[in-house]
Specification:
The complex is a heterodimer.
Chain A (H helix, E strand, L loop, with lengths): L6 H20 L7 E6 L2 E7 L6 E5 L2 E6 L2 E7 L5 H4 L9 E4 L4 E5 L9 E3 L1
Chain B lengths: L1 H29 L2 E7 L2 E7 L5 H20 L7 H8 L1 E3 L4 H13 L10 H6 L11 H10 L5 E4 L2 E4 L11 H15 L4 E6 L2 E6 L5 E6 L8 E7 L2 E7 L4 E4 L2 E4 L2 E2 L4 E2 L4 E8 L2 H14 L4 H6 L3 E6 L3 E4 L7 E3 L5 E4 L1
Classes of the chains: A alpha+beta, B alpha+beta.
């Protein structure tokens, strides 16, 4: 009975498996740690929340702050302050939107068990 | 022959496994195509899952949403047919888009006499877009007369307004725009997508697959949800008094008006979510039930829609047909099925 795998087969398989694994390992780090600030719907800044220092930036009258790896809208010139009311964003998919100033902050990706969208 | 097969099969199997590895790594990297913009005074997001040229398709959907808002539905953008009708009291609708839309909406408002397409006088008198004010009772009576649906007439392509009436699609527009964006994706052969326009969510799927959609916690921040619903295909709209309101002397006045009395709705309900097969319909029904109260559930069920009502005491009423799809995520709420 001939062996199922020859030595050559095994080498090919090992190389293929290793390259597959390598691709998996080198893919961009898992989402959910990246905050995206958008202005007029266009990406303005991307922040890696795991590595960032505390900061504060102002875009179109919206003050966005990051403290202890949590991002939030600190203040805004808009009348309704709905964006400020969104509070600290901690989970993927959460966002704070300022419609009057056309600025949004979102934690990218979709965490395990979190919904794709929210109606309300 | 058999020998060759025996030799090739294991290698082929391995290649398939590796292929899956590589594909999943690649897929994670690209993810769904998402585009964000602002339409109807709200944030619009279009997310397309899988398929080719998804970026372009999301852009087309957003362009169509913008076109519909700025040339037909908006009562604040000077290029729109609705705005021009309000300015001049009459409008000749050459392509018939506004005419057919008014007819569609009128069929809906005919089902609920406390609703009107001419609600703009209320919004102006109560300064809902600004600081908020309480008009005198004479002024309120005036607005009720202005909001009477008999002040709107459509003959052929001619639309006209009388007695100071002003057209506004505040209660429908976002749902309609959401539906239009989803339709635009369907026309481009998109199989799976989610569109949001403000609080209205459209879910498109051609397979059995479902997406979970959160229901906003009316007592929490804007990203906070108290429950989720699994939706395969359809639209979800929510109307409530927790986001747009003003307060005077400790009383809260919300932005939704009862067309029969001209007063902001006072209710033990804080939010109504409706799930159904059309965006205009879901938006209409969520507003109608918010005005009608619990009794409005029957109207929704008659129209083949499902409802989630949240009361101020955190009790929740859901349609029986939602039982298997609804998942409570916050233990402060109690759920009953109707």
């Amino acid at each position: 009975m001939k062996k199922l795998f020859t030595r050559a087969d095994l080498i090919i398989a090992a190389v293929a498996l290793l390259s597959g694994l390598a691709l998996l390992c080198f893919k961009p780090s898992g989402e959910g740690e990246t905050a995206i600030i958008r202005v007029d719907g266009k990406e303005y800044k991307r922040i890696d929340l795991q590595s960032t220092e505390n900061f504060e930036i102002t875009v179109n009258g919206v003050v966005i702050a990051c403290e202890n790896k949590e991002i939030y809208v600190k203040s805004s010139t808009c009348p309704d302050k709905i964006c400020v009311g969104a509070g600290h964003l901690t989970k993927s998919g959460q966002s704070a939107v300022c419609v009057p100033n056309r600025v949004s902050v979102e934690i990218s990706g979709k965490g395990e068990g979190t919904p794709w969208a929210v109606t309300g | 022959m058999l020998k060759a097969a025996k030799k090739i099969l294991p290698v082929a199997a391995l290649l398939v496994i590796v292929g899956i590895f590589v594909f999943s790594a690649f897929n994670e990297k690209t993810g769904p195509a998402k585009k964000v913009d602002f339409v109807c005074g709200s944030e619009v997001t279009v997310t397309v899952f899988g398929g080719f040229k998804s970026e372009e398709k999301t852009e087309r959907a957003i362009e169509e949403a913008k076109r519909l808002d700025s040339f037909v539905l908006s009562d604040t953008i000077p290029t729109s047919a609705t705005y021009l009708l309000n300015e001049n009291g009459k409008y000749t609708d050459k392509n018939g888009e506004l005419v057919s839309y008014i007819k569609e909406c009128k069929e809906l408002t005919d089902k609920c006499e406390q609703m009107t397409l001419l609600s703009k006088p209320f919004v102006i008198a109560w300064d809902i877009a600004g600081e908020g004010r309480i008009p005198s009772s004479e002024e309120i009576d005036e607005t009720v007369k202005k909001a009477d649906m008999n002040n709107l007439s459509v003959v052929g392509n001619e639309i006209s307004l009388s007695n100071g009436a002003l057209l506004s699609f505040g209660a429908f527009g976002k749902g309609t725009v959401c539906e239009k964006a989803v339709e635009t994706l369907k026309e481009q052969n998109v199989k799976s997508a989610i569109v949001t326009v403000g609080g209205t969510v459209g879910v498109l799927n051609t397979a059995e697959k479902t997406y979970s959609v959160g229901i906003r916690n009316p007592f929490g921040g804007s990203g906070d949800y108290f429950a989720t619903v699994n939706v395969n295909n359809g639209y979800l709209s929510t109307s409530g008094d927790y986001e747009k309101f003003f307060e005077k002397d400790g009383k809260r006045y919300c932005h939704i008006f009862d067309a029969a009395t001209g007063l902001p709705v006072k209710s033990d309900i804080t939010s109504v979510t409706v799930i159904t097969d059309g965006g205009t319909k879901s938006d209409f029904l969520s507003t109608a039930i918010f005005i009608l109260g619990e009794g409005g559930i029957d109207l929704a069920h008659d129209m083949n829609a499902e409802v989630i009502i949240v009361k101020k005491d955190k009790s929740v009423i859901i349609s029986k047909s939602l039982e298997d799809k609804f998942e409570l995520k916050n233990k402060d709420f109690t759920v009953t099925v109707k």
